[in-house]
Amino acid sequence: MTEDNAKVNEQLENETPDSTEQKEESAHNKKESKKDKGHKKTKAEEQLEKAETDLHELKDKHIRLQAEFDNYRKRTLKERMELLKTAGEGVLVNILPVIDDFDRAIQTLNSIEEENPAKEGVKLIYNKFQEFLKLNGVKEIEAKDQAFDTDLHEAITTFPAPSEDLKGKIIDVVQKGYFLNDKVIRHSKVVIGE
Which of 149, 158, 160 has the alpha carbon at shortest distance from 188? Predict the structure, then answer.
């Protein structure tokens, strides 16, 4: 058995340098594989960073697109509301001369002192017509004794003011002006005191 042990020891001694070399090579290979893995990890990290960058860009584009669409929706809704407010503007502007005629008729009827059923009927129709205009957002522009405003009034002529406090103010209204939902649809034609 000693001979067998001696042979085994001899083989171990002979194998030990080789196994040491093998262990060294294996360690060297492991280091190289770690370097390769580190290099591969760097590529994976680069791909991950690129994917994250792309994701952030896409999120940013998505958010901007949503904001743009929301602004578009709000703008079109506002335009639609404005359109609905002024949808009948053409018709109402064409009715304004009828209102003027009614005003003149009422002034003439007021000069008649006797009570007349026709006079009462015209006043009733006039009042209903005025209610109809109010319901549709038409309001008269107050002009008499007001300061002249070029946004609301159109000066026809100037006339000497009857008193000092009426200088630069409106002393007479030739034709009434009207608002439609706070938009001027016809300027008041006025005479200004000087």
Answer: 149
How far is 22 from 182, CA to CA, in rounded Å?
96
169: which DSSP letter? B
Q: How confident is residue 12, by pLDDT bands cut at 50, 70 and 90?
A: low
User: Are 158 and 183 a contacting pair, CB within 8 Å?
Assistant: no
Task: Please write the tens of the pLDDT for every residue from 60-88.
Answer: 999 999 999 999 999 999 999 888 777 78
Q: Which pair of tokens denotes residue 26?
A: 């294996």
As a whole number of angstroms, the distance between CA 107 and CA 101 comes to 10
User: What pTM, to 2 d.p., does this model score?
Assistant: 0.57
CA distance 97 to 93: 8
**78-105 in b/e burial notation, b at 16+ Cβ within 10 A?**
eeeeeeeeeeebeebeebbeebeebeee
Give per-residue pLDDT as tens, 157-168.
888 888 888 888
End-to-end CA distance of the chain: 144
From residue 40, give the alpha-carbon distance in Å to each of 24, 25, 31, 37, 193.
24, 22, 14, 5, 92
**129 class by beta-carbon count within 10 Å (0-12 exposed, 13-18 middle, 19+ buried):** middle
